[in-house]
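Appendix B, example 12.
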Amino acid sequence: MVLGRTHIKDVAAKRKVELNSYIQSLMNASTEVSECDLVYTFFHPLLRDEKAEGIDGIAKCTDVSPSSPTSGKVGGEVKLSISYRNSTLFIMVMHIKDLVTDDGADPNPYVKTYLLPDVHKTSKRKTKISRKTRNPTFNEMLVYSGYSKETLKQRELQLSVLSAESLRENFFLGGITLPLRDFNLNKETVNWYRLAAVPYL
């Protein structure tokens, strides 16, 4: 079902109630959750992302939060082709198989990637959305231009698979983090990677 513009206020009111409930449960959670870096920087203008330990802070917080998108079941694999030429990194998102959802319904999957560290989130790339499938085929190229091999060896590719939802927040289906120093950028690498409950941006 797709809601028209006349229902925007109804949807907003419903989301307000859900957000209030979520924030209340977050504040009443353990100190390890309610006082973690991710929560602090959501409500306060701290420059956490400029700290070297910022990514670790995200991982710590999302791993322990009972309401985290990573708290559900995660499964499946993603097939990628990774190559490099002319100062450009090419990430071909080919296929995903055997995605898992908590409610058993077929998701609307899409892929989002970052090159970490990325303070300003300028490296975000996304694929199109595949509708109602656990085994989507994308065959989409995500391109990162202007990177030397030396720079890429200091970066990690973070890939998240999410489901696009019209009546609720998009939810996390799994992800991977690949240190690019582990790849031979002089040749194409094609491989399947198992999805895990990693933090996402």
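The chain has a mean pLDDT of 81. The chain is about 25% helix and 30% strand.
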